[in-house]
Specification:
Elements (H helix, E strand, L loop, with lengths): L3 E2 L9 E2 H39 L5 H17 L4 H15 L14 H4 L1 H10 L91 E3 L18 E2 L4
Parallel strand pairs: 3-4
Antiparallel strand pairs: 1-2
Length: 243
Amino acid sequence: MTTYLAAPSGAESLIPVTVVVALITAGATFIIGWLNFRGQKSGQITDRFLRAIDQLGSDNPRVRIGAVFALERIAQESPSDRPHIVSTLAALVREQLPATAVGKGGYVYVLMQRAPDAQAALTVLCRSPLSDDRRGSSEIGGLDLSRSDLRRASLKNANLRDANLWGSRLENADMSGADLTGSNLSNAYFGTVSPGQPGFKRGTDLRHATLTRAQLTNTRDFKLAITDGAIGLAGNTEERVPS
């Protein structure tokens, strides 16, 4: 004997209970399968994250660069992991390139040549998805690149909104078109890497950069920076008096 359920108003036939049960069972099976898949995927992402972290400690710069882009790929797939990845890559830059290690004199190579993994980290930190919403980052104040040696870094059109660049060495860095809205640039250096070399007569390239609400107090050699077309700069700087 087959049991039937009444069809919705306007239907011409009854729906067998066995069909309803089959549909419910199929739906439950799909949900359970999806949850299992999500769990497996989460585990895979965790494994990939840990593997990339381990590779960041490699002596081979190519392995470290690969790890940086592996973390970016994870960030694209897992939004919840983005704050941790931001913190990890920012720590890589700060620890590998501390401003306190900057010596006096000597030729300074572009960042890609002297620290290609750090340049790779900066590149992914300053573009989507890692630049989309840093307020949820575990770093206090968002992206923390304070006290870093970023001389001759390539940061053209970089998204550095609300970034902490306090006390960083930015001599001859290319920051043209960068969005530095609300960033902390106090005590940063904007001069040249080697004033005695003909190719370095001007400092940090800030052409067409956005500096609205940026903190620029006690800066060093900001007058040497190239600021043609910069936005939000008027009355926003205070040079440090040389001691």
